Here is the input.
Amino acid sequence: MNLLTVEGIGIRFGGLHAVRDVGFSLKAGEIVSVIGPNGAGKTTLFNIISGVYIPHSGRILLESDDVTGFDPYLLARRGMSRTFQNLQIFQAMTVLENVMTGFHLRESGPVLSDLLALPSSRRRSREAESDARVLLARVGLERAAEREASALSYGALKRLEIARALALNPKLLLLDEPAAGCNAVETEEIDHLIVDVAKEGTAILLVEHDMKMVMRISNHIVVLDHGEKIAEGDPATVSRDPRVIEAYLGTQGQDANHAHG
Here is the structure.
């Protein structure tokens, strides 16, 4: 069964079709990348899937449930988590505290016990801290746990944001340009992290401009141009598609072909 199904999604801003009749699906443990030139509609599509925008047409299915237009917090409770193009990190908090904020949607304890610092609340806090340290180890940041987030490199902040997204224990993880602004070493670290998360059964939907990374780790690629899907398939098929090369890849596509081959 598909974990996520996107059917005929469309949205207009004024008279402009930002996304028009886009559909695809992904299963548990799959990495599906959405690529295309700037303005192709990639982030808009992400915003529809994650509940930021409500589409004018089509629907989103999470497992077999229609979740079109659900608020992001409701989607999070159903197992969808995402990162953003622009880092959403609390710079003045420690690295550990940033990850702990990701557990709040999983906590079901009464507000009163938190306000009164009752034993049950303190126990939940200890559990969240323990789980957060496990996630930091998973993304290679365990030694930075007590440091302020503002002291981290850009690549480390990107991994921190992924760790916080994983705090929700998602079935589906949406990553919006996780390697943007990263150097080659940082990109490779994020590349390995994404693959490891997928191997554990989490479905990953990825928007990314680093074509070598996309071709290296994706099971399936969806290509958008001017809000419409112009191609989809495995990396080898997509990188050879004349429409894709014309619309977006160009010489990058030839480089990616060599990388993939």
